[in-house]
Write a structure and sequence with these properties.
With 114 residues, the protein is an alpha+beta fold. It is built from four helices and two strands. Helix 2 packs across helix 3.
Amino acid sequence: MKDRELSELRDPANWNEEQAEVHAPVKGARSVLSVSFSRQDFALVTRCARELGMRTSEFVREAALARATSHHGLAQLSSFTQTGGIEVWVSRPQVTRTAVTVIRGLPEALGITA
């Protein structure tokens, strides 16, 4: 568009508010990011997206957002019941241990026979 045309469009004297066109709102503003992949990596990402029924851009966007919003270095402890629940984020321990309580005689007490 030429400078003269832009100037005319910006001049309120040229606006016809009685015949203004009403358009549906547009989506929120977006930013576009160019990402470089090796051919092999791009093939992997594209194949994965296709298997999930997604466009490649959609797959990359969701993966990036999932990584950006994850709680790095934290572990999630969750407990939910029908009446409520709790979700706690704690520092991820360097060593994990599993504690198991063994109740001797439980199968027999429950009427379970081997």
